[in-house]
Task: structure prediction
Amino acid sequence: MVDAGVGSPSAREIAQHAGVGLRTVFDRFADMDDLQLTATAEKFDRLAVATPVVPDTGSLDHRIDAMTAVRATLHEEVTAVRLAAQRQECCFAALRALVDGWDHRCALDIVRVFGPEFTAMSGERRDNVGAAVETAWSWSYWNQLRQRRSLSIDRSASIVSCAVRALLR
Result:
């Protein structure tokens, strides 16, 4: 339902959407937090399975373009869930941990794909550039470009690629 634009559906709306009674919803989930946590985890799991693997070989430009394309698709797919989670993660530790785990998975992929570039850098520079690249490819930065600045997917991807190129060269 969140993907369909219903930001914080009620238990009654969820039951109606699923074609079940309200009691059935709470037979399956302890409370609304449990339902949101499960729905978010399932969304992340589906995306992880469906996400193409970005090659860790080829030119720097090719890898940046490939990572940007994958991230753009991922961020577009996960935005509704991330916005819903954002409203509750400050006071719901399990949801925050789930989102942090997703972000960590994404960060590890950056290290895998751009390992040679990071290895060639000195300690502090590597840490700083790594954090900046991770931020440039983060959902938060993507959301800033897409929602706050109202930029198109293509324009946002171009900005992200430009930032990452500048950092990794």
User: Anything to note?
Assistant: The chain has a mean pLDDT of 89. The CA atoms of residues 10 and 120 lie 51 Å apart. Residues 60-86 form the longest helix (27 residues). The chain is about 75% helix and 0% strand.
